[in-house]
Amino acid sequence: MREDNDAARSAHVGREGEHDIDRIESPGFVEAVVGAIEAGERDILRSLIADLHESDLGRLIEALPPPDRPRMIELLGADFDFTALTELDETTRVRILEELSTQTVVEGMRDLDSDDAVYILEDLGDAEKQEILAGLSVPERAALQRSLDYPEESAGRRMQTEFIALPPFWTVGQALDYIGETEGLPEVFFEVFIVDPTFRLSGSVPLDRLLRTKRGTKLGEVVTPDRHVVNVLDDQEDVARIFERYNLISAPVVDAAGRIVGVLTVDDIVDVIQEEADEDLKALGGVAGDEELSDSFWYIAKSRFAWLLLNLIAANLASFVIALFENELQRMVALAVLMPIVASQGGNAGTQTMTVAVRALATRELKPSNARRIVARELLVGLFNGVVFAVIMAAVVFARFGVMDLGFVIGLAMIINLVAAALGGILIPLTLDRLKVDPAVSSGPFVTTITDVVGFFAFLGIASLWF
Amino acid sequence: MREDNDAARSAHVGREGEHDIDRIESPGFVEAVVGAIEAGERDILRSLIADLHESDLGRLIEALPPPDRPRMIELLGADFDFTALTELDETTRVRILEELSTQTVVEGMRDLDSDDAVYILEDLGDAEKQEILAGLSVPERAALQRSLDYPEESAGRRMQTEFIALPPFWTVGQALDYIGETEGLPEVFFEVFIVDPTFRLSGSVPLDRLLRTKRGTKLGEVVTPDRHVVNVLDDQEDVARIFERYNLISAPVVDAAGRIVGVLTVDDIVDVIQEEADEDLKALGGVAGDEELSDSFWYIAKSRFAWLLLNLIAANLASFVIALFENELQRMVALAVLMPIVASQGGNAGTQTMTVAVRALATRELKPSNARRIVARELLVGLFNGVVFAVIMAAVVFARFGVMDLGFVIGLAMIINLVAAALGGILIPLTLDRLKVDPAVSSGPFVTTITDVVGFFAFLGIASLWF
């Protein structure tokens, strides 16, 4: 019977777990929580949020009216798990931390893993950071300060400084007993690291291998050198790529002297991968990579403005090209009616090529070794689609205006612009990448400027020669 | 001394590991490999690629001329690790498998984990798939066939069917001994699952807890129900979201009756997360989500064509709007010169809003509960930037044409179009999402159609009323 119950319970929890997601953000639940906060009913609040996963607790916080967020944390006191703050976006987190008393933050930080503590501290102002650090014990402060001294977005910032390091002359049995009996080991770990007396890393033994080796065997005999050691100063994006590429679950982090200083696990890396893809996607859409849904009107208006200003300059440039052909436009108004089609088609084809190129550069699929082949292929695709759309548009224009010549002119301009779009769409990201400028952020305006200028110039220019 | 050497070696391996990445794709190395393949020098080939990680081996394969790829695999025979094929993109993988003899593929599949075997098999044609399955032993075939029977992109397709399941009445000591002594257990595992006699899951015990519990304790006393149980039919994207959200390393997969049938680990999920972000990014750029860098000219030209055709229709629609104002354009050629600026600025602003909306919908940050607030904010940003750009353009136009009125007209049109862009950019993705259409794929053409049509109509319409 017992097992049956357990099985049923497990499946049930699984299903309930999914329900939780909706329940937490349902107006009824949020209202109940708000009611408890505003009435100062600590016990009710505690029973409502008991057993919530830190991630769900984070979602709940985001669903609360902003003034209730710090209030809830103060009310819960030691019952609030500060890990939930790592699940919030930066803007929301910083605002809550600014409202909380230093005492509350210091108490909350004590129970955190080092990587979570650093994650929460790093976005705060210097004065606030120091105030909080001052409240911690000397060893806690020293550990956090050391992580904070590493550059932003480095492995040193993201790593966990808790790990198990053992000497190679210990036996497997000693290691197993040590793990079984020692208090205060990391909550979750996948391997033990083998180090010399100066903490220089010689390799690791995964837990499952430890279990499958005879107790009398020395660790030094079963250690394997870690093939993927992360340097503490490595950029988190490079680290993420190594994790992805080699399907790593965790990797040791060493300093310049080869001493182990921490460990990175894949759950931290998943967030980095997400962030990175997110930044590329936003950059291609003309939005700052760090724009968050919770950002204020002002911040967003400002950050969007910069990109639009760039676009305005590009659009004015195109407009000057059009102005070169004022006489033709006056003589033949059909040119004005048709010219945006050529530019728009080029812009879209260019964006297609650019999107593929930017993404392939980000994932390192596009390399000097295959660049020539890809450029040739894009050119061919541009030429082919250019010819097809030239024929289609020539037919459409003939049907609309009854002028065969005009169809020929727009067709020729279409071919030229789609070839230009293909070239611009691939060569601009490649060039920016070579110049160490992020192609995701900067390619867009260049590509559309090219397709606008070439589109208008080709169409109006050919028309001026023809008619 | 020994430890020092180890430490040095480890750091060295780390550094060499990074070098490997470049070395593999360097022309010299690829040439050496090609030389060995074409001369049939199996031993040289083996020494060149010995110790390559499956991922690097995959990269090497991609760097080889296509005819040499299957040749290398045949030449290496049992020394070739078929796992490397999972690192290739689909087009390349399928082409290689078609070239290989069934015998070679069958032999290669034998050593694979079930999830890798399924990954390789699933893209093949039915006849080929059956031929390979027929070559395997009955239990191997049955296991793979069962996974293949689950729908594409389901948890059942991605899961590993090797896991350790133990009864709750076993002691920790028995479990540890079983793990230590049994051959053929999964290569890497993070927990043991506790099941009843019918394999219904009651929970799991992570390895580290197993190590820290007294040997005499019954597993049933230390088991915790898994809070995040995956159903075998769950879509891989939903599973990825659960992994991300709750920072999971692995999760059991159960069937409808709650029986454990497999386990999913985060390294498989990382690939799903990547793919998903990749698809959104490409879709926004007007490219099919499954377009790969290795795809043929034809496939790419065809897939890009569909999107461009849609855009052509939209551009022609905008062109018809312009044609409504032929008289105004004829009277005042400056309108033709300026009108693309209004349309372009709207298109870019709309893309910004749309990008943010599509991404926030994909990550479930944008929900009915906050949609109204976000729509209001985007509207405000559109209005604000509209006013700012209206002022800028009015000044530019006055400087260029010396006509105050024209500046006023373009300014007004700019405000209208940026507000329309904001509304279209957010409401179209929201509506598509509600209609269960992927907003990443379909929002673009709608948004730019709106900003083109509104841009031309507002500018030329106001001008026709004014002048």
UniProtKB/TrEMBL annotation, chains A, B:
Residues 1-20 are annotated as: Disordered. It is a multi-pass membrane protein. Residues 223-279 form the CBS domain. GO terms for molecular function: magnesium ion transmembrane transporter activity; metal ion binding. GO terms for cellular component: plasma membrane. Its main location: membrane. It holds the Pfam family CBS. Keywords: CBS domain, Cell membrane, Magnesium, Membrane, Metal-binding, Transmembrane, Transmembrane helix, Transport. It is found in: Cell membrane; Membrane. The chain crosses the membrane at residues 305-325, 379-401, 407-432, 444-466. The keyword Membrane applies. Belongs to the SLC41A transporter family. Acts as a magnesium transporter. Homodimer. This is Magnesium transporter MgtE. It comes from Ancylobacter tetraedralis. The lineage of its organism: Bacteria, Pseudomonadati, Pseudomonadota, Alphaproteobacteria, Hyphomicrobiales.
